[in-house]
Amino acid sequence: MSMKCCCLSFLKGGLLGLLLLLPSLPQAELVIRESYVKAVLLFNFTRYTQWPESVFQAIGSPYRICVLGQDTFENALTELDAAVEGETIREREIEILRIESIEQTQSCQVLFIAELKNYTLQEVFAYIRDYPILSVGNGEDFILEGGMIAYYQQGTKVRFAVNPQAVNEAKLKISANLLQLARIINRQ
Amino acid sequence: MPVLKLNPAHFSLLLIMLFLLLPSQALYADENALSVSDTGGAIEQLKQLDLADLLEVDVTLDDVFDIFDALVQQQNVQVATGSKQSIARAPAVTSVISAQDIEATGARDIDEVLEMIPGFHVSRHSTAYNPIYSLRGIKTDFQVLMMVNDIPIDTLYTGGRNAVWGGMSVKQIARVEVIRGPGSAVHGADAFAGAINIITKNKNDIDGTRIGSRLGSYNMRDVWLEHGQKLGALDMGLVLEYQTTDGHDPLIRRDGQSTLDQELAHYAIPALSFAPATANLQRKNLDMNLDLGWKYWKLRLGYQGHYDTALGINYNNILDPKSRFEDQRYRADLTYHNPLIADNWDVTTRLSYLDMQSKATENQIQTRPGFTVPVTTGQDFLNYPEGIIFNSGINERQMRLDVSAFYFGFEQHSLRMGAGYSYGQLYEITHETNIDPVTGMPVPLAAGLLNLSDTPYVFLPEEKRKSWYVFLQDHWKFYENWELTTGLRYDHYSDFGGTLNPRFALVWQPIPKLTAKLLYGHAFRAPSFVELYNQNNLIVQGNPNVKAETIDTTELALNYYVNDRLHLGVNIYTFNWQDALQFQFSPDLHKYIVQNNERRKGQGLELEARWKVGKRLSLLANYALQRITTKHINVTSTSQDAYLRADWLLMPKWYLNAQLNWVGSRERNPVDAREDLGAYTQIDLTLRYKDIRYNHWNLAFGIRNIFDEPVIEPSTISEFGEARLPDDLPMPGRNYFIELSYRF
């Protein structure tokens, strides 16, 4: 029941040498982290979504992008800050807010939900259901649990999926351009 | 007809080439560079891109431990209703296995993959060691529907997979979704004990180009290529895999001929059996899968070829080192799926084609030259100096048109409806033999084999089947935290009539962490062409008047999410299986004839746990207990199995997977005089090097059955209650593989 001799000799010859080569040396290339792309996408989701005018308390009120839970953005909110820096959407400024409790979501237009410690996803969705809040999270399951936009990973690329019904139910409108690039997941 | 021949030297060369092809800078890629980078600058650059380009940027993944999240959390299925749902809330008991699971466990064939599913066990037929898929204690193999991309691949001929199945390699598989339980209200025929849907990889599942090779015990060699590319607006995914093996050479101490030899020894008739000898299970497989996507269109072409497949043990349970089979399957489907076709409508239309061709490429020696049988006890003997040869060829095609749609326009309801038509036929049955069908006497080989194809003496006529169906399914959120799924499907068959299959699923989520489901489903299995039309056989005969088998299953399932890291599931079920098809002796015909005359009842329990213990360890466990009572003979048999899997991140980039598969003792049929077959535990280890950030090199070393446990699957008994292979079917002992692949 042993491996045939050809495999063994090949093993000794080629593969062991290969193994030694695997640990690698540094390079100096600009690294694009997953969170950078997610941050830029989050800004674009905000840009390509329409809220009912009534959600803004005053003419100059900013768009609020809130982050709930622990995440890569937690230590590096700078990424999100960098993504929205100097940007305005329909003449409104953009504010990044890190929040701890679901009660704080009321004033958010976009809610990025990261790894939750104190809540379950369902609790968050149950709470925000009555507000026009664009919910964004990670993984297909996020949508299947009731979320609107989810990042997912495809090899080394960041992609996103949208549930158009959930968006409609919250009285939001996502532009067709954004939908075209999204994977559509219709949830029962 | 071996189209590809690769010897060990070629394999080694391929691996060396693989190494030489490696772009040199890949060796110097480094994750330490992560800490350097200029965040603001990078983001500024990304903001300049338009959205479509942004999605094509190669990123450095943030969380090295993502793999364990995926194992525990990303659990959703489409197979339950046709729409994606989390496993917890899907109105069926389901399991999913992703390409990541397949890679982690080092599985090489679909049979190894399915073994991970609670209550699922793959045992073996003696003939060619064909797999028997048993689920929930239903062990007759035709009661599990197998689909590739939602399209059934079961044959009309046997109702199960091909007569000589030859396996299915796994590199083409993106995920496997399984319904444990009835699925006829959604998938139609044969989703009886369960339904398996194999979803093949598309461009998005394949990251660039990867080539790889695996070498292993039993002269097992495997090479593959995966390629995913965007060609303008066209998404292309291609997977090619070629496998060969000499088989694990199980030692068969006594075969069907040995028993006969023993009886005939009194009359000084020389023994003919090869036993004790090893069974030749060599095979060569080629799998190709091309997936083209354009806007809402998808064209998928699949080819599976099995060449030089040895039977090992033939239909008469006689060792047969020389027989060879060739089997080819062609799959094609053109699918249009538009999830936004109109407000609230999500529509899918699919045209599909399946062609399966199998034939003997060497004479199929049913009994060896010199075969002798007593005609009257101890007096006259019938002698076949050249043995009995029976060469069969089976060619079958199936065409289907399916249309389905979701409608989301009602406040609390989502509706799914659909209809379809299918046409299937055996278009060429060939039959060659050296036995005169009229006299039963041998014809000398020198005169050539008799060709009985297209004569009344052929073993199976070239029959056809037409069927159509309509279904409607309603998903109703009728009260806060309560959902009711009701489904009804009507199928009509040209050969055995109509069948109506309802299902109900009540799902209650009293608190977000807990889901409770009460499920009922009615399902059917269509009689196969062998059961309907088998003819000119001395022992068994088909019966065109039989109807479908049916099963009613009631289940209660609970899913409890203790937290994001620990998920638990438990379910119990009971089923009533009616009109089960069985061969029954007919004194008039002096033959066994197929009848709907059996009833079986079953109950069972399945437990599941998934636990992400920490950032470096995840565990998965399941256990199933099932009991089935056959009314006719009033016999109850109990079986159990358990599966445990652990994935460790040993050090950065090095993963260790261990899986334990325990199969409880196998009770014998009461007319089988042998003792019950004992339990076994098989443990496999796979060590893998993988850099998920750059994902270029992937290297693995695996040991299967690490403790060399004697893994034995039971042999069946004949119509006369004899165990023709009294020592059962030994499975592989300890064996090894090494695997290397590189992504460009």
Automatic annotation (TrEMBL), chain A:
Pfam families given in the database record: DUF4154 (PF13689)
Protein's name in the database: DUF4154 domain-containing protein
Taxonomic source organism: Candidatus Venteria ishoeyi
Lineage of origin: Bacteria, Pseudomonadati, Pseudomonadota, Gammaproteobacteria, Thiotrichales
